[in-house]
């Protein structure tokens, strides 16, 4: 199992949790972004810079991820592609995407895009909170413990 991170918009606090998890669980964490990212020195952590462009990082992650891997992303279409590969997709707010929930998320995303295209102000997501950080850390711990049991 590897962890792939859609890192362009991933909150710093989530990256820090992932860095600690990489060391604790001795698992490869790869940050993927179209900009150069800081990573602490570690054999378990690396960053990959991809060219700028629409969905370039997402497409790279989809190409690299394998069944059983974990992908950290808030991008709904990317999560959908990851689930199709039998990998696990986790939102930085701690929501685990599933085959049951992804269709609803895609439909809501498309609906909101339609509203915005018609000029309706929809607002953005709520500010990232301590509760979001805690939910992510708890979900990550569950996933890592499950992966460790299956090794």
SSE topology sketch:
Blueprint: E1 3-6, H1 12-25, E2 29-33, E3 45-49, H2 56-64, E4 70-72, H3 76-84, E5 88-90, E6 96-97, H4 99-117, H5 130-149
Parallel strand pairs: 1-2, 1-4, 2-3, 4-5
Antiparallel strand pairs: 5-6
Key terms:
151 residues, alpha/beta, Rossmann fold, six-stranded mixed beta sheet, 5 helices, 6 strands
Secondary structure category: alpha/beta
The CATH architecture: 3-Layer(aba) Sandwich
What percent of the residues sit in helical stretches (DSSP H or I)? 40-55%
Shape: globular
Low-pLDDT residue intervals, each spanning 5 or more residues = none
- Major pleated sheet: 6 strands, mixed
Number of strands: 6
Q: At the first level of CATH, what is the class? A: Alpha Beta
How many domains make up the 3D coordinates? 1
What is the spatial order of strands in the main beta sheet?
Answer: 3-2-1-4-5-6
Radius of gyration: 15 Å
Mean pLDDT: 91
Order of helices and strands: EHEEHEHEEHH
Distance between the first and last residues' Cα: 9 Å
Give the amount of beta strand, in percent: 5-15%
Looking at CATH, which topology would you report?
Answer: Rossmann fold
Count of runs of 4 or more consecutive helical residues: 5
Protein name: UPF0178 protein SAMN05660284_01011
Family: Belongs to the UPF0178 family.
InterPro entries: UPF0178 (IPR003791)
Organism: Formivibrio citricus
């Amino acid at each position: 199992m590897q962890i792939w991170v859609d890192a362009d918009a991933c909150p710093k606090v989530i990256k820090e949790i992932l860095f600690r998890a990489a060391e604790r669980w001795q698992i490869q964490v790869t940050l993927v972004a179209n900009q150069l990212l800081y990573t602490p020195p570690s054999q378990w952590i690396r960053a990959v810079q991809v060219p700028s462009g629409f969905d370039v990082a997402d497409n790279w992650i989809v190409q690299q991820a394998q069944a059983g891997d974990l992908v950290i992303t808030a991008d709904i279409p990317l999560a959908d592609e990851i689930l199709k590969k039998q990998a696990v997709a986790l939102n930085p707010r701690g929501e685990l995407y599933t085959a049951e929930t992804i269709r609803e998320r895609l439909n809501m995303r498309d609906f909101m895009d339609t509203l915005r295209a018609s000029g309706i102000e929809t607002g953005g997501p709520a500010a990232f909170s301590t509760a979001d950080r805690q939910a992510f850390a708890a979900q990550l711990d569950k996933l890592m413990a499950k992966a460790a049991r299956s090794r």
